[in-house]
Amino acid sequence: MNRSLSTITINIGKSKINDNVIDEIKRQLKENEVVKLRFSKGISAEKQNYITEIIEKSNSKLIDFRGNVAVIFKQRRGK
C-alpha cells in the first residue's frame, strides 16, 4: 500500500508545540501510522527541537525530513 496517499498533514505554526498538538499527533499515528508535519517558515529555526520533542512524546520515529516537512511513523500494536 502506498502510505503517502493517506498521509495526514499537521501544520505547526506560531502556536508551537503544546499538549493539544501532541495529543492530535498521537491520535493520528494510532489511526494512520504515518503523519506529515509541516512547519511554518516563521519557526524554522526551532523546528529540529520541535521534531525531537514530538518523536519523544509520541514514541514515534522520524522517517523523512526535508525543508519544512517532517514525516514520522509509529507502528500500530498487533501488527
Characterise this structure.
This protein starts with 7 loop residues before the first strand and ends in a 6-residue tail after the last strand. The longest helix is centred in the N-terminal third of the chain and has 14 residues, at 19-32. It has 2 helices and 4 strands. The mean pLDDT is 88. It has helices at residues 19-32, 47-58; strands at 8-12, 34-39, 61-66, 69-73. It is of the alpha+beta class and 79 residues long.
Largest sheet: 4 strands, mixed
For the termini, the CA-CA separation is 15 Å
User: Approximately how much beta-strand content do the residues carry?
Assistant: 25-35%
- Number of continuous helical runs: 2
Low-confidence stretches: none
What would you say about this model in short?
The protein is an alpha+beta fold.
Question: Which features would summarize this protein structure in a list?
Answer:
4 strands; 79 residues; four-stranded mixed sheet
What is the element layout, followed by pairings?
Elements: E1 8-12, H1 19-32, E2 34-39, H2 47-58, E3 61-66, E4 69-73
Parallel strand pairs: 1-2
Antiparallel strand pairs: 2-4, 3-4
